[in-house]
Amino acid sequence: MQQFSRIKTHNSALKNINMSKKENNIQFTTSEGEIDLLALLKVLWVKRKLLIYFVSVGILFGLLFAFTTPKQYRVSSTLVPQVGSSTNKLGGLSSLAAMAGFKMDMPVSSELNPMVYPKILNSNAFKKDLMYCKFDFERADKPITLFEYFTQDKYHKFSLAGFIETYTIRLPEVIIRALTKTDDAGGASGLQSKSEILSLNGPEYEISKILTDIVFLSINDKDGYLVLTVNMPEAKATAQLGHHTLRLLQEYITKYRIEKAEQQLEFIQSRFDQKKKDFETAQLELANFRDKNKFVSTAVAKTQEEKLQSEYQLAFEVYSELAQQLEAAKIKVKEETPVLTVIEPISIPNKYFKPKRKNILILWMATSLFLGICWIFGQIYYKELKRKWNQ
Questions:
Q1: Domain interval for residue 10
Q2: Same structural domain for residues 46 and 105?
Q3: How do residues 300-352 score in pLDDT, each as one tens digit?
């Protein structure tokens, strides 16, 4: 039995020696210096078992990556912004105001340029509000916020690709995050006012970067519409996040519009208060003059009365026009005007768009085949260099 084993080992060694000799005897270039593809293929055929091993390992890893990578669902919504013209809505008041000594020919449009919408979506204030909205997730017993979802591992499925990426490519980032970790969990911010100083702690800053990658708004300049796109690992949560994003975006735009309307209201209110005093003063002066000159019929008195009457009439017209504009401005602040028209509403997706498992498997097979070929010819090149070095 031992003799048979020795014979088998000896034959295997002879076989390896013969294969090595075949490899060394193969010339990879022709006499004209060109690469001999047939010779290369012969080497690969001799080493086909090694190539099969590399490809098999590649298929195994490809399957692991394909079936452990979390699914990604995508929802999108097409929006059409309503853009108004910057017309002066003070009407005939401008000419009267000019006669009264001040200029009111100013833009009063409260419309927001749609090109600014993506900036609003990517602002820290917007993302901080969004990360504290609650959604339904499969591994949570009750609705939780995005902050909780992204900061607690128990809500996530294991991902081999994510694990390898975290502890290889993103390892420096993980170490820095661990060293600068803060216990401040933050809190819901609400719509930020101009007087508030916005701050993000460490976890909030990391989540804001995640939101930049999963929620984005694109503009079609040619056709004049917007497309809101949201990506998430769960179908229902993806649709909910899309709805909340759209609602929050409308709130921010409406808040901006109300601020502009309130500025207009404040401007008209100040002009109204001033002209109300001017009107009351002119009215009182005219009444006092008439009482004092009731039985006087001189030309000077008549001229003075006409002057006071003209001042009173002008003050009354400006005051009346401002009163109308003031009521219109108050109504405008209370109006609920839709800002975005939804052409394509958000619905729960039926199919995931990532990962593309077939493409992942093909990529791993091609990569492993390439690595196997590099390994084979690398060994041959190394042996040749070693042989020349020993000569």
A1: 2-68+356-390
A2: no
A3: 777 787 787 888 788 888 888 888 888 887 777 776 565 678 888 899 999 98
- Together in a domain, 236 and 124: yes
Domain match, 258 and 364 both: no
Whether 80 and 45 share a structural domain: no
Q: What is the mean pLDDT of residues 5-17?
A: 46
| Stated pTM of the model | 0.61
**Are 267 and 315 contained in the same domain?**
yes
Separation between Cα atoms, residue 60 and residue 87, nearest integer Å: 67
pLDDT tens-digit map of 77-121: 999 887 554 444 444 444 444 434 444 444 444 466 788 899 999
Same domain, 54 and 162: no
Query: For every residue of 311-368, which 3-state class applies, written as one string?
Result: HHHHHHHHHHHHHHHHHHHHHHHHCCCCCEEEEECCCCCCCCCECCHHHHHHHHHHHH
Calculated CA dihedral for residues 88, 90, 92, 97, nearest 10 degrees: -110
The domain total for the chain is 2
* Stated length of the chain: 391
Please tell me the distance from the alpha carbon of residue 302 to that of residue 143, in angstroms, as a whole number.
81
